Amino acid sequence: MDDQPTPSKRPVLAACLAVLVLAVGAGAVVFWPDREQAATATPAPSASASPSLPVSPPLEKATPVNQVDALLDAQAQALVKGDEAGWLAPVDQKLHPRYRTIFQNLRALEVTSADLAIDEQPKMDGAAIKARVWLNYCFSGVDCPAFRADANFGAPKMIYMLTWTPRADSYVITGMADSGVPNHMQPAPWENAALTFAHGARVIVAGPKSQAKNIKRALPLAEKAATVADRYAGQFNNPQKKYRIYMADDKSWKTWYDDAAPKWSAAYHRQFNGVGSDIVMRAGKVMSGTDREITELIQHEMAHAVTLNGNRNRDEGQDQWLVEGIAEYIGYQPRKPQNTDSRDALRYVQSRRGAVKTMAVPQLAEKADDLTVTRLYATGHFAAGCMADQFGEPKMITFVQMVVYEGMDLDPASQVAFGKPFKTVDKTCVNWIRKQL
Question: Could you tell me where the Low complexity compositional bias lies (predicted)?
Answer without folding.
Answer: 41-53
